[in-house]
Amino acid sequence: MSAPRVARTKAELRALLAAARDHGLTVGLVPTMGSLHDGHLSLLRAARERCDVVVMSLFVNPAQFGEGEDLDSYPSDEVRDLEVAGESGVDIVFAPEVDEVYPAGFATYVAVEGLADVLDGDPARRGATHFRGVTTVVAKLLNLVAPDVAFFGQKDAQQAIVVRRMARDLDFRSEIAVVPTVREPDGLALSSRNSYLTPDARKRASGLWLALDAVRETALGGASVDDAIAAGQRVLAEAGIEPEYLEARHADDLTPAESFNGRPVLVAVAARVGRARLIDNVVVGDPAPTD
């Protein structure tokens, strides 16, 4: 594979995309914050399979980090990421500086009410501005790239749900495609923040998936939501993990689930394991329909 073309400015990005548009080529977008792993590569493969031109953004978005989070220490290796992007068939990498995305005087943000106020959007957890930062930067990327399809990972299920609603509400023409979570052999979901885990923390972190699997199996056995969540809580306790949340919510609108009958249910967990704050999820029932 050849090295991708790198755009540092919005003008450079638009110029690189102009030829593709003139020739009627389809464009896929994969937003990333870098530190690429196999989870990202699954998104890039999906984009490569479906689209003529693959654009990957490489931008650690400060607007989605709350006070006390790991913005300054977030894993970053642009040289490696560009090499991996090229090996994965990426055509264009958009790697701007912060002031290119948020110029002086920037004052406009996009907020999705309701969906972005629970789980990771709860002000008592990551803060009220987390998803506002996500949706703002994704809206800018959708506007700049105008992709036919934008690809997101199921690991960040709430993010995908929020982005899909934003795209629908604001009439973006891009399809929002969600790609299954990629896991380690013991079930741990791949994440850039896994690099923070010490050997002991890494071993305990597999308890997140074991807990989700326990909830799913208990739910499929006909148990109530409370009993299924309790089964997951016991697994987390055995792993020495105190979750920020382990909740069952409807997978389409994130309202609390009262049972596992009928609509698909998203079971989501977040916890700090050592230095790393990790999230994961599983859907009980058929996948939620797309818009």
Describe the structure.
This protein has helices at residues 10-22, 38-50, 78-87, 98-101, 130-145, 157-169, 199-205, 207-220, 225-238, and strands spanning 5-7, 27-32, 53-58, 92-94, 149-153, 175-179, 243-250, 265-273, 276-284. By secondary structure, it is α/β, with parallel strands linked by helices. It has 2 domains: 5-179, Rossmann fold; 192-283, Pantoate--beta-alanine Ligase, Chain: A,domain 2 (2-Layer Sandwich), CATH 3.30.1300. The strands form 2 sheets. It has a 6-stranded parallel sheet, with helices on both faces. α6 links the parallel β5 (149-153) and β6. α8 packs antiparallel against α9. The model has no long low-confidence stretch (mean pLDDT 95).
Q: What is the multimeric organization of the chains shown?
A: single chain
Count of spatially separate domains: 2
Sheet with the most strands: spatial strand order: 1-4-3-2-5-6
Number of strands: 9
CATH architectural label of the largest domain: 3-Layer(aba) Sandwich
Strand percentage: 15-25%
Order of helices and strands: EHEHEHEHHEHEHHHEEE
Radius of gyration: 19 Å
Unreliable runs? none
